Amino acid sequence: MQEQVTGQDQKFQAGRSRPKLRVLLVEDEVIFARAVAKRLQQAGYDCEHAATLQAGRELVRQMAPDMILLDMRLPDGNGLDLLPELVAKGISVISMTAYGEVADAVYAMKLGATDYLKKPVDLDELLLTIEKAQAATRLKHHLDYSRQRNMHATEGVELLGDSPAMSSVKAQIERFAQLVTFSDAIPPTVLIQGETGTGKDVAARLLHLSCANSDRPFVHVDCASLPAELIESELFGHEKGAFTSAQGSRCGLIEAAEDGTLFLDEIGELPLALQAKLLNVLERRMVRRLGSTKEHPVLARFVAATNRDLHQMVLEGRFRSDLFYRLNVLTMNMPPLRERGDDILLLAKHFAVQTERRYGLQPRPFSAGATSMIREYHWPGNVRELKHQVSRAVLLGRESQIMPHDLALPGSLQPEQAMTIPERGVTLESAEKALIENALRQSNNNVSEAARQLGITRMAMRYRMERHGIKV
């Protein structure tokens, strides 16, 4: 007969499949130590006991514990003597002190203890404190990882180009960085405007790197790609049970930015309801997670970017005027590629060399025809489109030079050929719609290919098509 597995058995087996938390109890009261060890083992933890500091040191070397419950008063010394060694090893420590020795607990927290308990210890409270300490450790590791990842993401960031337009942008970045570096006031918000693919994200990262706290996190939030039902939780975080799928507490991206930079890309796509909450954060410099009553201070610098005309959106009621004025403190305009003169060829050569090195290919120059095509093409997708087209030409070309047909540009269209826009009464909305319709025509209604030509994601393309009523 097939043996049935009860829910309790399933829970037990699931617990066995996960690695157990290794807990070391350093405590000289034998009866209390036995009770704690028994309760922890019942809860699924591996627990070892040491009655002295010396025995504790030996077990730390032998078992490499994840967490230590450390008594302050021991036969051969004070737990405070061992605490710095444990913290240096990255071990989470919960100190235990007798009534009247709260000063020791406070000092232990200053030395790096995760939490403390007063004796006599309630065993249910002990288990709850261990769970809280585990959650705090996981959050710290997550933030440490995020910080390292973001530091790598900003390595080698630079804005290439010597045109007057780019020289002005670089001067602005340097000036904005100085305003933050030499002031103790709250960092002013920065709004970066420009067409899709002009390098707004690169400018934001370079601004972050130019400031004194460049070692702090850089958190990039793409407001256009985050699902509407998740964006509030992603930005502000949530507590356990705040909504149906909230199985645990989670730090939001605003908190994760700490005292670094929070980059809100495509801020114009943020829903109106969340615009009000973001404005509140910017005004009060406090953030509250979903389902929580506790507020956390916000120290991060806010940098926003958009390819939309926010002023026009304000007039149309699609963007809050108060948030617009709050964001529009320091403004930077990224020039489109067609207005950057010889920067186009400089960037094309840079992307070609970059691709050749990455794939171990022999260097190939651009032919005169390819150079002329690069100069004359309108580049609606700007630097992003240039990078993709050049990389494709380098990878697929078979001749000794990069030829015009390798670039695979859509007919080398001139601006007036690329879009049909009325000469008078033109608006940003009509221009965007015409640009999308043209890209779809050139790609035979292939939405992914049209999005690639425009330098945007497929999701952003679908969103804009729906907004303009464009169907394929």
UniProtKB/TrEMBL annotation:
Domain Response regulatory: 22-134
Superkingdom as given in the UniProt entry: Bacteria
Nucleotide-binding found in the keyword field: yes
Keywords: ATP-binding, Nucleotide-binding, Phosphoprotein, Transcription, Transcription regulation
Molecular function per GO: ATP binding; sequence-specific DNA binding
SMART domains, per the entry: AAA (SM00382), REC (SM00448)
Residue ranges of every copy of the Sigma-54 factor interaction domain listed in the record: 159-395
Protein name: Two component, sigma54 specific, transcriptional regulator, Fis family
Organism, as annotated: Methylobacillus flagellatus (strain ATCC 51484 / DSM 6875 / VKM B-1610 / KT)
